[in-house]
Amino acid sequence: MFQIGLSLAQAPVSRAASSAPDAHVFVVAGDSVASGRAAETDAEVFPAGARHWAASNAWEPVGSRLHHGPWETGAVARPDASANFGWARAFANAYQAANPGVILHLIGVARAGAGFANGLWTPGGAAYQAALGRINAALSAAPANAVLKGILWHQGGADAQDPAARATYEAALTGLVASLRADVVGAGPSTPFVIGGHFPLSAQYHADIQSVCQSRPNRIAHTGYADPSTPTEATLFDGVHPDAAANQRLGQSYHLALLQAAANPSVASTGAITTGAIGHYPLPRALVATVTGVALGSPASDRLLVVAVTARSDTAIRPLSVSVGGLRMTRAGAPETGVNHCGATLYYGRVPDGTAATVEVAFDALNYNGQAAISVLPVYGARLHPASAKGFAIARSDSGTTTLSAPISAEPGEFVYAFATGISNALAAAVVNLPQTLSSLAGNAKYGIYSAAGLSATSGPMTVTFNFDMNLVRATLAAIVLKPS
Predict the structure, then answer these.
(1) What average pLDDT score do residues 68-73 get?
(2) Separation of CA 411 from chain center
(3) φ, ψ at 133 (rounded to 5°)
(4) How far apart are CA 345 and CA 197, in angstroms?
(5) Distance CA 11, CA 184 (A)
(6) Per-residue pLDDT for 229 more than 70?
(7) Measured between alpha carbons, how far is 309 from 291 in angstroms, rounded to an integer?
(8) Three-state secondary structure of 9-63
(9) Second label for 363, Cα 20 to 30 Å away, from 87, 130, 172, 314?
(10) Considering only CA atoms, which of 354, 477, 351, 343 is closest in space to residue 407?
């Protein structure tokens, strides 16, 4: 799990002496998911004493909603009981609870529809400069003992709609992190930068954007990933934006990811990855399915479990959450579903203690003829999250095939795990281009699950391939690449 005793200190904006409580400053940036569109519930408020850079261009107490700049309309930015709000409020409460002696100062600079394709977040452009001016003005007027503690980012919907923008998104986001760290007063290369994951049910979701965001902690030092699948999948009120409950959970994920960013001083690898044995376990037919006695391998502080979930029925089935011994796992990519399809969804997470545990999988549906199973593999010496933007892939075959392949990218010493599932006349014999394999049935004589794993010996593009000795229908393959610590 994340270490929570680490210092998040950055260079103070000013070093003038002050006896006032410490002021911790955060920038909230991105698009409308960052600024928020959920209807007010009055279930929580910003912490007492928290301040924001208000429409008056001055530090004021936060009202019902964080102000994000002159580009917001009055209808969105209204400070009343029905105001739209986002995850910044839950983040503020989680951070304040962990740091009770500080005064939070929040600077909002998110704007709806902002991206790189439309130039609104392109460094040097007019919109970027306007946001930067707002940030630096707020920092210049901050209390003498103010310290910039991090930049919190959620964006990608606009760029997901443009194939050219998707192709350049990794370079654009990486460049933005560097630009903000260079241009913001008091920031630097070690300023924590948190990037939020995206919602698979959103009309603006694209796997390429999600892969870039989820892999940044393995590509940029002092970055963290805020997971929208923990403790359960985000719910949306309009097909794009998270509702109040999902914002509350996502804000807590941003706080955990901030700690993760502080514990991520380098993306260099110094160790080697090893594994335990793969295990396969059928799940009972239930909306919340549990299996006890799942083997976890040897306990270790760096133990990472990779869990593959498969489910099929005559309706589409989507896993909502996975927990191992009560610890919630993080989803890689998107839940894979389909009518009568054998979906394959990958999860991962740190589980340091115990040699066996109960695994719980919650589904959104599972009717009378549904079947489900999991594959579990303990991995040691691996970093959290996919190794790169090409470190996750998924492939499907609806009509039937004897070969399933998925393209990934891996460097020597990086670890590849792949999981395939499908229906055949009997358990098919599988030949995979990875050394560790396991095949078994999931509940009946036709539903097969196949796992494979191993270290990469080459650099660059790689195709994980399962070759079967008989035809599989409704088949799915998912693969993930992990980087050594």
Answers:
(1) 90
(2) 22
(3) -60, -40
(4) 16
(5) 12
(6) yes
(7) 12
(8) CCCECCCCCCCCCCEEEEEEEECHHHHCCECCCCCCCCCCCCEEECCCCCEEECC
(9) 87
(10) 477
